[in-house]
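Example complex used in Figure S2.
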Amino acid sequence: MTDRKFRPNGLIAAGAVAMALGAPTGVAAADDVAGFYKDNIVTAVLGAGPGGGYDVYARTVMKHLVKHIPGQPAFIMQFMPGAGGQKAAQYFYNVASRDGSKIAKLSNMLPAFQLLRSGVKYNVSKLNYIGRAASMQYVTMVWHTTGVKSLEDAQKAKNPIVFGSSGKSQSNYIVPAVMKNLLGLNVKVIAGYPGTADINKALEQGEVTGRAGAWSSWIAAGARLVNTGKVVAIAQAGTEKATDIKNGYGEPVPLLLDLAKNDEERAILKLLASDAAMGRNFSVPPEVPKARVTALCRAFDATMKDPEFLEEAKKRKLIIEPKPCEWLNAFAQEVVATPKPLVAKAKQILGWK
Amino acid sequence: MIRKFIKTAAAALSIAMLAVAVQPAQTMAMEDVELVVGTAGTDHPLFAAGNGISMASVIAAKGVKVYNFGTKGDKDNMKRISKTKRAINLALVSGKGLAAANDKMKKEVSGLIAVGQHKGDTILLIARNKAPKGLSKDAYTKALSSVVAALKSAKGKKFVSKEWKAFAPANADAAFKAAGVAVHKAAMM
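Predicted assembly (542 residues):
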């Protein structure tokens, strides 16, 4: 009883002291955030059209995220495909309101694109990332008849591994380009396939003998090829090694990052593999009030542990490998701080101007 | 013996009635139908209108949410709404754009309402005839009707007008007829 009576008094006293000092209390700050979100509809901006991986991740995360945001706002989705996600990124950075009512799931390539592409109208280091739901580990697979069962086999291969790609700005081009031009593997790239399904078809028809793709895509759209042993994993591109991906000898598949011969190569590989680590990320524009950004970060963390969210993700076969906003913002800053001479070398490796 | 039988039957009936009574609660817990509306480029007024329609659906429609898809406009919308895979469910098109579409495309869609004027042409809201995967035709019609009602409601009008000042929902049977497109059942409910 004494304790019960003491608590409110203690709170009033603490509040009075805080008010006297002119500092906002945690409770008051939380109330402001809740008040804002209660009266607003959150818009989730997507740099892609409906129906794909971006959409499934975004809808699933948003549905549960709003339950954890103070004020529990409703949400709508805004699909904004175009220019490999650049259109949405530029809109989000330059036009979207900076009050915390807009949350985006933008391209995981943004930090790398900021350095490697010209005409970019955003600065990743000013974006506020609120969390990552999963990495986008890229796995290099080769067709079983090539006889290549591991990266060592690929390094010794006399015949080139021919990779199918959908375009020079895509990871299915970047990964084999790195294998060829930085690590010296006998690799060729045929670009111009409309999408993943078309490259898989080309693999089956013998047009190409390899494809680099997100692990989540291999185990979903490419599951038949993986489960029947038609394709063999030889390398993974990213910064975090997945130990459950095995090569043709049943050994864990190595990270391309681990093949770097020196710090310079390692920095270039890290820049070019940064998209895998950025993964399925969510952000809010620059200049959003700090209390709202913090609330969104904590809401995101809570969502990633929410049993209902995890159950739905499992049902939808979504890989969940969360990282908090602090980790993601630090990683993005590190990527955009890559020294200019190394960026120039990375461009050379990719054949980009 | 008879008393025991009556008691058992009464208990069974109570359980059955309770089960029926629980049904509406289960229906209420069902997830909202999610529809996608094709609008126009992100710098076009119809993209802003799409945001308003999305917001109006969240606030004023029952059991349905509409999401905004920034497309390349009339032609792109007609192409996407008549696609076999990953099609959009709704689209904003100009009267001229709808009339110019080919007959095959027109057969795939029906008209809902007019939403306003842009550059001297009436902007129409049309719907794909085919229900999204996993949704019955009736449930789809009900969802579309709920969207139309939300857009005509005072609350809905307020939200869309905030984003697009020219918003003026109205029946457009004549405009659809002129464009060679049938009016959807949902527009008449």
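Chain A is about 45% helix and 15% strand. Residues 2-21 of chain A form the longest helix (20 residues).
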